[in-house]
Design goal:
Helix content: 55-70%
Strand content: 15-25%
Largest sheet: 8 strands, mixed, barrel
Shape: flat
Number of helices: 38
Strand order of the largest sheet: 18-19-21-22-23-24-25-26
Structural class: alpha+beta
C-alpha cells in the first residue's frame, strides 16, 4: 500500500508540474515524465503497482478541470501504455541495468509501442469529449505519443538504475562534477534560454550537450547520464514551451520534431555509451578470468607443458614438466631439447620435425627422455608450431608420462595371450602360420585341431570381404597392434557365419611382432536378433514397407539433402477411399489383402531411391527426392507421379478370388529450399489429402500454405461460434426504417456477436461460417424469437405498438421441413402480432426448391406475416417466379443506391426496380441511403421508404428507442 501511495504522489506531482506548461490544449504537454515513473515502478515493483498509476493519472486530470468520465478514460490509457511496455520488456528478457546494447533497442521499441496505446486512448477521449476537432486528432495523437515516449525514455532509466552505488559515483570526484555542472549551465543557457536573436549560434551549442552527456556517462555511470539527459531535455522543452531557444525559432512543427529528436538522441546516446562501456568491462572481465583459468590449467596440469625455440632451448615450462625431467627451472633453461633425448630417436625426431614444418603439428609420438638421474622415462608427445609477437617460431609441446600406461599394456598383452578362455582362440606366428587353437575354436569352426595347425587363417575365408577389408585390418594391426570387428567366416561344412573377432599383435622386447593372437565369438544368434529387431522397428510386418519411424529418418535425410543441394522434394499422403466399408463388409482379411496389393502397386510406380511407407491403417506416404531446383518443375514431376499412382490404384483388385474396385485420395506437399519441420510437412500433406476427399475423392490436391492458416482460423472461429450460441453471446441491433418525411415505421433487426475477447463482432465475420456449419439454424431461431419477444413488448405501449420488425431468414432456415411450424411456435410462445413481423428473403432462395418456398411463404402470409425480397437486383430473379411469390415489398440493394447520383447504370436499375414494384403492386424500400440527394432522387422516382445512415446506423435497443423518441419530438414540434 505504501508503494501505491508513493506512486500516486509521484505521478500526480510530476503530472501536475508538466501540465503547467501544456503544449496542445490543457491535457497535452511536450514531455510527460509520469509515464517513465509508471514504467519504472512496474518493472521494479511488479504488475501489482498499476492501481497507483491509474489513481495518479485520474487525479492529475481532475486537477486541471477534466470531467470524471474524461479523467477516467485518460487514466485507463495512461495505465495500459506503461503496462504493455513493461510486460513486453519482461517477455524479451530486458536488463534494467542497460548493460547490453540490445537492451537499449528493446527499451526504445517498447516505449514507442506502449505509449502508442496511451496516446490513442487519450486523444480518443479528448475527441469524444469535444476538446479537439477531428482535423487536430493526428497532431494531438503525435504530440501525446512523443510526449509520453520521451517521458519514458527520460525518467525510467534514471529510476531503474538509481542506487546508492550511483550516488557514490557522483561523490567520487566532486571537482570534476562541479566542472561538468558549470559547463552544462553555460551550454544550456546559450543553447536554450538566450535571446532569440542569437539563434544562429544556439544550434551548435545545443549539440555540445552530447559530449557533455558522454562525459557524464563515461565518468559517472548510467544513472548520472540519465539524470543529465533529463535535465537537458526538461530545459529544452521548457524553453520551447515558454518561447525561448532554437526549437521555437525554427517553426512550430519542425521545432517540435527537432525537440523530440534531440531528446531521443540524448537518451539513446547516454544509454548506448553506458551499454557499450558495460559490455567492454564485461568482456575485459571475461578475458581476465579466462586468462587466469588458462594460467591455472597450465600450472596445475598433470601433463608436462613446455615452450621451446627452434634451437631446442626451453623458454617456458610448468611444474609437471619439471617433475618429469627431474631438473630445476634454472637447470632446464641451461639445457636444450636434444640433451634430454637418447640418440636412438634421431631418425624419428627428423620425421616429427618434418611433420611440424609441413603441417604445423607433430605427434602423437612416443619416445623416452633421460631424467637427471639418468633413468629413461617413456613419454607421449604432441606439439604445434606457433609464432611469437616478435615473429620468431616456437614449439608448444604437451608431454605425458606413460610409464603406468606401458605397464598396463604389458599386463593386457599377457592377459590377451592367455590361452585358456571361454572364447575361441587362435595363435599364429609372425608369418600367420597357425600354431595352436583352443577347444572353443574347434567347436566354432567344425575342424579338428590337427586339421588347422600348420595352415593359415585364409582357410576360413567366406568370400564376403574384399581385399580392401583385409588391407584395412592389417594396416590397423601394423599401426596399432590390434584390430577388432565383425567378420564372416566359413565352417568346415560350408556354412557361413558371423563372428566378432579381435586380433592382437604380440611384440617382443625389441618391439618386433612375434605372434598374433585372435579371439572370436559366434554372433549368429545376436545378428539374427538384431535383424529381427531392426525389421520390426523400421518395417511394417503386413506390407513389408518402411514404417513411420523409418520414414521419419529418411525424411530427415531428404530435408538435409534438399537444403544442401537446393533441390525440391515432395511428400504424397495417400488414403484409400471407403476402406472401412470394405473391412466392415468383406472382413479384415480382405482389407489386409488389399493393403498388400496397394503396397506392391505403389512400389512399382516409384523410382529407385524413392520411399513408399505405410503409416498405419489405410494410410501410405510416398517420399520423392531431387525433383528439381525450380518449384514449378518439382510440382509438375510430383503431379506426374501422383497421376501414375491414381491410375495404378484405380485398377481392379482380386481379393481371394473376389473382384474389388477401390480409389485413393492423394495430398501432395513440396519441400526443399525452406526449413520446414517434419511435423509441418506431414500436416500439410494430410491437409491436402483431406482437400482431395472434400473435392469428391479419387483425386489429387496440392497443399496451399494459406489453406492451413484458413483452416486453423476457421476451426477456432467455429468453436467460438458454437460456444457463443450456447452462452447466448448475441445481441440485436435495430436500424430504423423511415417513410415519407421522417416517420419511423419499424426497423430491421441485425445480429451482433458480443465476443468476450474480441468485443462486438459484425455479422460479416461470422454469418458465412454459421451458414456453412448449420449453426445458422440455431442462430436464426434465436434472432426470430428475440425479435418476436420485442414486438410483443412494444405492443403493450401506445407509442411503439405500430412498429414492425424485419428479420432476415437464411436459405437453410426456409428449407427446413418444419420451418412454418417453427415460426408458428415462436409466435405462440411470444404472443407477438404476426402482422408486425416481416421476413426478408434473398434472391438465392429462388434458385432451388421454388415450389416448396412458395408454399411455405403462402402459409405464413395467411397468418399476416409480410415478406420482402432483400438485395433485389443483385441476383437472377425470374419475373415469372417473382409474380407468383406472395411478396409485400422489394428492397433496393445498397450497391445501387450508393452511386445512384453518379452512375447512370445504377440510376437506371433503381428506377427499374421502383417501376417493377409499382407494376406488381408491391411496396419498395431502399437501403444504404446516406445523403439527402440520394433520398430526393429516390423520392422523385416513387420510392418513399428508406433505411440507411442518413437517418441512423444500427442501434442497440435502448439507443433505438431514444432515437425514436427524439424523432417523434421533432415531428411534434
Amino acid at each position: 500500500m505504501t508503494r501505491i501511495l508513493l506512486l500516486v504522489a509521484a505521478y500526480f506531482v510530476t503530472g501536475w508540474l508538466g501540465l503547467q506548461i501544456p503544449y496542445t490544449g490543457s491535457h497535452i504537454t511536450l514531455v510527460w515524465l509520469p509515464t517513465g515513473i509508471a514504467v519504472a515502478a512496474l518493472l521494479r515493483w511488479g504488475r501489482g503497482s498499476w492501481p497507483g498509476i491509474g489513481i495518479g493519472a485520474f487525479l492529475v486530470n481532475l486537477s486541471i478541470g477534466s470531467s470524471l468520465l474524461l479523467a477516467a478514460g485518460i487514466a485507463v490509457g495512461n495505465t495500459l501504455g506503461p503496462l504493455l511496455c513493461a510486460e513486453w520488456l519482461r517477455q524479451t528478457g530486458f536488463h534494467a541495468a542497460f548493460d547490453r546494447q540490445k537492451d537499449v533497442g528493446t527499451f526504445i521499441v517498447a516505449a514507442g509501442m506502449g505509449m502508442a496505446v496511451s496516446a490513442l486512448c487519450g486523444t480518443t477521449n479528448l475527441y469524444l469529449s469535444g476538446l479537439i476537432p477531428p482535423e487536430s486528432i493526428g497532431h494531438a495523437w503525435l504530440t501525446w505519443w512523443m510526449g509520453d515516449t520521451v517521458g519514458v525514455l527520460l525518467a525510467a532509466p534514471l529510476l531503474l538504475t538509481f542506487t546508492r552505488k550511483s550516488i557514490g559515483q557522483l561523490n567520487r570526484d566532486r571537482k570534476e562534477l562541479l566542472l561538468w555542472c558549470l559547463s552544462a549551465m553555460l551550454v544550456t543557457w546559450f543553447a536554450f534560454i538566450q535571446d532569440n536573436a542569437q539563434i544562429d549560434r544556439a544550434l551548435p551549442l545545443a549539440f555540445l550537450t552530447l559530449p557533455l552527456l558522454a562525459w557524464m556517462a563515461l565518468r559517472f555511470g548510467i544513472s548520472s547520464a540519465a539524470l543529465a539527459s533529463l535535465g537537458f531535455s526538461v530545459i529544452a522543452a521548457w524553453s520551447a514551451s515558454t518561447g525561448h531557444g532554437f526549437f521555437l525559432m525554427v517553426g512550430a512543427h519542425i521545432g517540435l520534431f527537432l525537440l523530440w529528436s534531440y531528446i531521443a538522441t540524448l537518451v539513446l546516446t547516454g544509454l548506448l555509451i553506458t551499454a557499450l562501456q558495460a559490455e567492454r568491462l564485461q568482456a575485459e572481465n571475461v578475458m581476465r578470468e579466462n586468462e587466469e583459468k588458462l594460467r591455472g590449467l597450465y600450472e596445475l596440469s598433470p601433463l608436462g607443458i613446455a615452450l621451446v625455440d627452434m634451437q631446442g632451448r626451453y623458454i617456458e615450462f610448468n611444474e609437471a614438466f619439471r617433475n618429469i625431467c627431474g631438473y630445476s627451472s634454472e637447470e632446464l633453461k641451461a639445457l636444450d631439447y636434444w640433451q634430454l633425448t637418447p640418440n636412438k630417436y634421431t631418425a624419428d625426431e627428423v620425421r616429427q620435425l618434418e611433420s611440424l614444418q609441413r603441417t604445423g603439428r607433430y605427434g602423437p609420438y612416443e619416445k623416452e627422455y633421460l631424467r637427471k638421474d639418468g633413468s629413461p622415462v617413456p613419454l607421449q608427445l604432441n606439439g604445434m608450431l606457433i609464432s611469437g609477437s616478435n615473429g620468431q617460431k616456437y614449439i608448444w609441446s604437451i608431454v605425458e608420462d606413460i610409464t603406468e600406461r606401458k605397464q598396463i599394456e604389458t599386463d593386457l598383452r599377457i592377459a590377451a595371450t592367455s590361452f585358456e578362455a571361454q572364447v575361441g582362440i587362435i595363435v599364429t606366428d609372425a608369418a600367420c602360420i597357425i600354431l595352436r587353437v583352443n577347444r572353443a575354436f574347434t567347436e566354432l569352426s567344425g575342424y579338428l585341431a590337427n586339421e588347422i595347425v600348420g595352415q593359415t587363417p585364409r582357410m576360413f575365408k567366406s568370400g564376403r570381404h574384399d581385399t580392401a577389408f583385409y588391407a584395412a585390418m592389417w594396416d590397423s594391426i601394423r599401426r596399432l597392434g590390434v584390430w577388432q570387428g565383425e567378420i564372416w567366416d566359413r565352417r568346415k561344412n560350408g556354412e557361413i557365419y558371423p563372428k566378432w573377432m579381435t586380433i592382437t599383435a604380440v611384440k617382443g622386447n625389441d618391439g618386433n611382432t612375434t605372434h598374433y593372437v585372435g579371439t572370436q565369438i559366434d554372433i549368429t544368434e545376436r545378428k539374427a536378433a538384431e535383424d529381427e529387431i531392426r525389421y520390426l522397428a523400421f518395417f511394417d510386418p503386413l506390407t513389408r514397407l518402411p514404417n513411420r519411424r523409418l520414414l521419419v529418418d529418411r525424411l530427415q535425410q531428404a530435408l538435409a539433402n534438399g537444403s544442401r543441394n537446393q533441390k525440391f522434394g515432395a511428400l504424397l499422403f495417400i488414403d484409400l477411399d471407403n476402406f472401412k466399408t470394405l473391412n466392415d463388409t468383406f472382413g479384415h482379411d480382405k482389407g489386409d489383402l488389399l493393403l498388400q496389393q496397394v503396397a506392391q502397386r505403389l512400389s512399382a510406380c516409384m523410382r529407385e531411391g524413392d520411399t513408399v511407407a505405410r503409416l498405419g491403417g489405410d494410410e501410405f506416404v510416398v517420399l520423392l527426392e531431387e525433383l528439381g531446383q525450380k518449384i514449378n518443375e518439382a510440382a509438375a514431376q510430383a503431379e506426374v507421379v501422383g497421376e501414375k499412382v491414381l491410375s495404378a490404384l484405380n485398377q481392379s483388385y482380386l481379393l481371394d478370388g473376389q473382384a474389388y474396385h477401390g480409389t485413393p485420395s492423394i495430398g501432395v506437399t513440396l519441400f526443399g529450399q525452406q526449413h520446414e519441420s517434419m511435423d509441418e510437412l506431414m500436416k500439410q500433406a494430410d491437409l491436402a489429402m483431406y482437400q482431395a476427399k472434400a473435392a469428391g475423392r479419387n483425386t489429387l490436391r496440392f497443399f496451399d500454405p494459406e489453406m492451413q492458416a484458413a483452416v486453423t482460423s476457421r476451426a477456432a472461429m467455429e468453436s467460438d461460434l458454437r460456444n457463443a450460441v450456447r452462452e447466448r453471446q448475441f445481441i440485436l441491433y435495430y436500424q430504423p426504417q423511415i417513410e415519407g418525411c421522417g416517420q419511423i415505421t419499424g426497423a430491421e433487426v441485425l445480429v451482433r456477436w458480443q465476443h468476450p475477447q474480441r468485443g462486438l463482432v459484425l455479422p460479416g465475420e461470422f454469418i458465412p461460417m454459421a451458414e456453412d456449419t448449420d449453426i445458422i439454424l440455431l442462430l436464426g431461431n434465436w434472432v426470430l424469437e428475440s425479435a418476436c419477444t420485442q414486438l410483443a413488448a412494444w405492443s403493450d405501449r401506445a407509442d411503439t405498438a405500430c412498429l414492425t420488425l424485419a428479420v432476415n431468414v437464411s436459405a437453410k432456415q426456409l428449407r427446413q421441413p418444419n420451418f412454418v411450424e417453427q415460426v408458428l411456435a415462436i409466435l405462440d410462445s411470444t404472443c407477438a402480432d404476426p402482422r408486425k413481423l416481416k421476413l426478408e428473403l434473398t434472391e438465392s432462395l429462388l434458385m432451388d426448391g421454388m415450389e416448396d418456398t412458395i408454399a411455405k411463404m403462402t402459409a405464413l402470409k395467411a397468418l399476416g406475416i409480410g415478406f420482402a425480397l432483400d438485395d433485389f437486383g443483385t441476383g437472377f430473379s425470374s419475373l415469372s417466379y417473382l409474380k407468383r411469390l406472395p411478396l409485400e415489398k422489394l428492397k433496393i440493394d445498397r450497391s445501387f443506391v450508393m452511386d445512384v447520383l453518379t452512375d447512370p447504370n445504377d440510376a437506371a436499375i433503381a428506377k427499374t426496380i421502383i417501376s417493377l414494384a409499382q407494376s406488381l403492386g408491391l411496396a419498395v424500400i431502399a437501403e444504404g441511403v446516406e445523403t439527402e440527394e440520394q433520398r430526393n432522387f429516390l423520392a422523385s422516382n416513387g420510392c418513399h421508404a428508406y433505411q440507411g445512415y442518413l437517418y441512423s446506423r444500427p442501434l442497440s435497443l435502448a439507443d433505438f428507442e431514444s432515437f425514436m423518441n427524439r424523432v417523434r419530438q421533432q415531428t411534434t414540434v
